[in-house]
Amino acid sequence: MEKTVSRRTFLTGAGAVAAGLAVCGIAGCAPSSSNEPSADSGTWDEESDVLVIGAGGAGLTAAIVAARGGAAVTVLEAASTAGGNTINSSGVIQAAGTEEQKTLAGISDDTPEKHAEYYLQCGEGQLDEELVRFACDQAPSCIEFMKELGIKYEVVYGNGTVPNVDPDVIAPRIHLGGTDENDLVYGQAHVAALLKAAEEVGVTFVYDTAAKQLVQNDQGTITGVVADDKKRYRGKKAVILATCSYDRSEEFARAFNYHMVQTLADGRALTAATNTGDGLRMGMSVGAALEGMGGFIGLSNNIGGTPTLPNMPEVPGIIVNKYGRRFVSESDHYAWVLRMIFAQEDHIAWGVFDSKAAALTGSVVGGVSPMSDDFSKEIEDGTVIVAETIEELASKISVPAANLTTAIDTWNSDMAAGQKDSQFPTRACGLEPIDEPPFYATRSYDYSLGALGGLKINTKAQVLDTNGDPIPHLYAAGQVAGGFMGSYYPGTGTGILSTLAFGRSAGENALAEEEA
Q1: What span, in angstroms and rounded, lies between the C-alpha atoms of 108 and 105?
Q2: Backbone angles phi, psi at 154, to 5 degrees
């Protein structure tokens, strides 16, 4: 596992992926004529019992559950392959009270109730408590669901502290699977397991086909969709939206998420190019309410001491703003750190480190191309700044030299006095002096892993209208739905938990519907 992390993880994140994902065409937030519901004429090109829109983690899960229950299931996918955002993820799941948590992490007293309390405190009063408690109660069985599909969880680890969250509800809960029989890891292994199970149970997949309009009958029941191939697809029992979010929609971002506006403009979006918000638009077109809009899942390239996997090298570095001052504990949960970086003036922050951190080696997570071992390429293109003194470094990154010197001197004094951070006591790793030249700095950016917030649902995964009533035969799961997470991502493995918990719920409850 040590080979999967290094100082490169902190410096590059998944930046190389961004270059390969072009921002695709964008449509407005308000339902356009192409997203308005179509009347049910009774004429269909294709029919199935349950129609799933999207073949990412949530859609695949819903399809498996419905098909195992005896339903004929069709999945429409806008891309040419399955996977969505899930296939590019780390493939991990948060869960409390599992056997793996006991044996691999030595935690025997954690519970789904504590897990839910952690999420609720991270949510700062913005979350739907019923959804949170439902997902956390389901989490251990979600682990078992994936184990039954062949995933073996080999590591359980934590995601750092959050300053405004009670430490008693924080625990190692992130379950990481090992390499599968085809040498796949992370999200690729997770999706492969789901796809194999779906195909084995007879799910029909229609790729390169995006749903654009819901079909609604005179009673207000959703009966199918019209896709961009001009065909009408019927879902006799239900339609399940699993289209992920609006990660690639500039208009949605401008309306709800300025953080995402920045990542789109700068080419720092690492999400599936098909995530243009069509599921939200279709839901809104039939009166669906929105919930939890504005949140953001990010991946940082910051330097510091953020803990991830066990046995990860402890990276000695600090993060400073444009004034050369520290403003956050670098080992706090990375999403909290990103939130604090974005809150700085001009969103500017720098990771500062010395030759000890630069000497750490290894590969980065997710198959991303690593930085050069000696930073020669990055120094040449300006990604990494190097100097022999702190004063020279400050000049090169345009921060006040006196402030940066004070920040480094304070840090080094703390390390000499007993390796404790006097400014941010939650700093838990990377507790070493920054004192061996040359000194380095790299701009701390965040990369978008997706938007938070979407269609309002209940624990049955039914889409709710603005009065709080279910829209008949319409379900949603995964990131197209909102209310489960707040303004920042509460921890690695939360997104996949939501795809499993609510994907299974959608499949089970759609299966129980009477044919429309």
Answers
A1: 9
A2: -115, -15
